Amino acid sequence: MSLRTSVIVNGINNLSDARYCAGMGVDIIGFNLKLDDKDRVQPEKLKEITGWLSGVQLAGEFERAKPEIINDMAEEFGLDFIQLDTPYLIDEIEEISRPVIQKIFINKDTVESELLEMMELYSTVVHSFIVYSDDFNTIDDTNTKFLAALAKEYSVYIGFGLDKSNINTTLQQIKPAGIGLQGGHEIKPGLKDFDELQEIFEEIEEL
After folding, report:
1. What sign for the dihedral angle of Cα 158, 204, 186, 22?
2. pLDDT of amino acid 207
3. Which of 12, 41, 130, 143 has a CA that sits 20 to 30 A from residue 81's CA?
């Protein structure tokens, strides 16, 4: 299957999600490797999952780990990308041995000029940005123009507020580099409800 835009699926923690996403044509699947997070994927589990995968790139999601720890884990688990879910110093990012996807947040009080200034500063050391929001639950007229301005200047993945009803409008109006979706927990080992992901994949399938 081929998709019309680049897709990252974050928070993968089981083989069912990983194999499903790889089969659906997702470009990058991300694993929570945050050292102090109770939901992080354990090394044995990560090796088990990645051992079954092919044709998809792997990202590790980190928050406060030092660059040397990130590099060691990237080497051990064959990670292609590093996703930083909190701001790092530029000097620290430059020490990371894999391309970096930087997570950024927007809310109703975000000043566009200030965010663009920050993104300009980081754009020389990161591969792309993935945009999240705690304020906005969907992509609509309240944030489309703002997001389009970001996507016009930089490589941006939209990581919030997407569903089957707005995904095509989002791609047309914002023109992002791609979208970011979220994996979830299995109902029980080997059993997974893929309805939400499937609905979006069906909308963006390359016909």
Report:
1. negative
2. 73
3. 143
